[in-house]
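User: Okay, second chain of the day. Same drill as before: sequence in, structure tokens out.
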Amino acid sequence: MNPARDIALIDQLRAEPAEAAWLEFKGNNTDPEMIGKRCSALANAARVEGRDMAYMVWGVADETHAVTGTTFHPDTRKVGGNQVLPMWLANSLTPSIAFSFRVVDHPEGRVVLLEIPAATGAPVAFNGVPYIRIGSATPKLTDYPERYQRLIERLQPYRWEQGMARQFATGDEVLALLDYTQYFRLTQQPLPDNRRGIFDKLEADRLILSDVGERWNITNLGAILFANRLADFDASLARKSVRFVAYAGSNRAATVTHRLDGQKGYAVGFEGLVGYLNALLPKNEYIGAALREAHPLFPELAIRELVANALIHQDMTVTGAGPQIELFADRLEISNPGAPLVKPERMIDLPPRSRNEALASLMRRMRMCEEQGSGLDKVVSACEVFQLPPPLLRAEDNSFQAVLYGPRGFASMTPDERMRACYFHAVLKFLSGDKMKNSSLCARLGIAPKNAAQATAVINKTLEAGLIRVADPDHPRAGYVPSWA
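Assistant: Same drill. Structure tokens below.
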């Protein structure tokens, strides 16, 4: 930790008018049982009070808040004869919390700071008993059902976006590390004419948070979206940059023709990345009413949405991996770490579920992806319009992959692709209030009406696979709908 920040933090805590439910000052009382109960109580009380951290401070008088110094050495304090206090405390608290003892050489004396994260997933218990702080008392939480209920209501699961990418940054460092002008442009807000106005807006979207000593914390959300250089932050965040590789052939053994490792935050670099991809894609010629028209091999809307989907829905807690885009001669593969929260076959019709709701919300505000629940519909629809094979949405061990395929006629599609195209077509028809029929599937697959039996065979295979069903068993010609409809 930063020693200057710890001194500023202690001074800010000393400036509080009195001890609080989330703050306690101690002299040299180092009784382990007392510390264990206080850890539980302060963690739970901090969450009730809407604070992210609670603190115990040794070496500060609880009445005057003057620095008196302490002889407490937490790393050498033994409990039960052979276990150091931090390890004993970690084993006694459930669920485990990332508390931190820090010895601070304050200008006025030696101080020990115990920083305690607020409860997140469940009340924090010491030896199986959760406590709460009320005034100067530390009773059992269960003895105060109204406070217990309030704590349960305020408990929130951990959000990676709320973590800190940089602590104790000066205002100048914030403005140098984040492309704040892009934030205002993309969110369509006027750029304030003063620093205070800039910081207020960034803080309102939780891209930065106020720290001690008139400094700032840059959140993971702020860094991953608006970093000028992700490498300026922790290595684990820098590895979340987008990686692009293009191959001369149809597999990874082919020669690499282009490679790009993203350096900027997602919002700052998104438009450039999509433009770079579209510029590399080969073009197909379509004959319109009078002129030949060149179109990219893959629909731009599909690329844009699938890239945004990979950024938004990745599991940020998977270390050493980030979104990856690979361009082959016949397909485009877009993958991201983390298994999806919705089954791939239901991603078109079910509302999306994201681990990164703040990231998703802000990217939608900046119009980098479609409105909630409509993106993948448009991807599948675009593939139909261009008469491309259906996209493949595939969940693997701890990752998700979306594959766009280049143009191939019905005869060149695999049986699985034909069934997937039939299923997706039935889903799109159902979502538009219609039903799939043999004739509409012929149009989707480019089958001439005289060869309608080919579409019938695909429908029968898809029925056997349980992906679709007859809409009305009493009227089989009424059409087909997804099996879950």
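The mean pLDDT is 91.

User: Thanks, on to the next one.
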